Amino acid sequence: MNSSKNKILIYGAAGYTGRLVCERAKELELPFEIAGRSGDTIEPLAKELGVAYHTFGVDDAAGWKAALQNASCLINAAGPFENTAEYAMKACLDNGVHHLDISAELATYQLAESLDEQAKQAGIMLISGAGMFVSYDALVLHTARRVKTPHKVSVAFRHYGGFSRGSVKSSRNIAGLGILVRKDGKIKQVADAQTKLFYFGDGEEECLPTPLGGIILSYKSTGIPNIEEYFQLKLPASGMADLADIDALPDGPNAEERAAGRTRLAAEVTDEDGGKAYSVVDAPSGYTLTSLSVVAVAHRILRGDFKTGFQSPASAFGESIIRDIPDTNIIDF
Length: 333
Ligand SMILES: NC(=O)c1ccc[n+]([C@@H]2O[C@H](COP(=O)([O-])OP(=O)(O)OC[C@H]3O[C@@H](n4cnc5c(N)ncnc54)[C@H](OP(=O)(O)O)[C@@H]3O)[C@@H](O)[C@H]2O)c1
What we know:
Layout: E1 7-11, H1 16-27, E2 32-36, H2 39-49, E3 53-55, H3 61-67, E4 71-76, H4 85-95, E5 98-101, H5 106-114, H6 116-122, E6 125-128, H7 133-144, E7 150-160, H8 165-170, H9 172-175, E8 180-183, E9 186-189, E10 196-199, E11 204-209, H10 214-222, E12 226-234, H11 255-259, E13 262-271, E14 276-284, H12 286-302, E15 309-310, H13 313-317, E16 329-332
The structure holds NADP nicotinamide-adenine-dinucleotide phosphate.
NADP nicotinamide-adenine-dinucleotide phosphate binds near residues 16, 166 and 251.
Protein name: Saccharopine dehydrogenase family protein
Pfam families: Sacchrp_dh_NADP
Organism: Pontibacter silvestris
């Protein structure tokens, strides 16, 4: 890779989460430029941040080429990713730039997986799901290593802080999938999935079966043949706005709301012999965690730490990546 290509390009920078990602990159004084499809929002943001900017639509190959000229790593924060991931990944392959996004959509993980060989040939790392899934994937790998032959993992995500408008828009790409699990190494639909109790370190809670991304990402990092995922929602005191009118929703939780609660993740790994390991992650609430996580991964890349091809956060960096995320810890039980 050309040595002058040493910057992060943040596409979708003016979105709710994109702005948090920019703030974190700025806080760490990392070299970055920003981009998005609308000059009305990108230009003032670039001025505020004191960085260069690029305005182009996601399907504009020439726009990507110019914007990626000085970049070694893209952070795509423009979701729903069903509309942007393919273009962003192709741009990274064409321009020899490592790819990160903060997608929570299973289809984009599968797209990245399908581009493994092309990414290897291009000498780039392709990660989809480098937001909240960084600590999630590190937790699964960590817990799996606590047993001899991991056979099954059940993971639960306790979200705090409500959702951004962008997340609500993207949620149909998750909710519409039904309940998916990995069983004996294959992704399967489950008709009669049951709720499950998880201990998050501060009491037990009932969680709903929900396909989250570990069935692709944590399969990549651990190879555990049986993976089930669950979700538990903790809303801020104000509750959730009426989701019927998405455009009337606020951009996302404000700084005070984000600081008022924590994300908890729990993983239970069962050994082939029936032994169990149980670990929990305690981390900042969702959107803060996402921005801290994706910038931590980009920072590793800027330091030359990457593996080519399709990767998950933990397959690329091992569980140590969680130590790069401030105020985020694994607790063993
Ligand atoms: N898993 C995680 O860790 C995690 C955490 C947070 C967010 N997310 C995901 O991140 C995404 C963004 O969330 P958000 O809250 O930041 O949403 P948002 O405030 O609506 O921002 C979305 C940004 O993407 C841009 N965009 C959307 N569609 C585009 C397209 N087709 N072409 C070019 N740009 C496009 C928007 O540009 P305009 O302003 O021009 O429309 C905006 O800048 C969502 O999909 C959300 O689910 C995932």
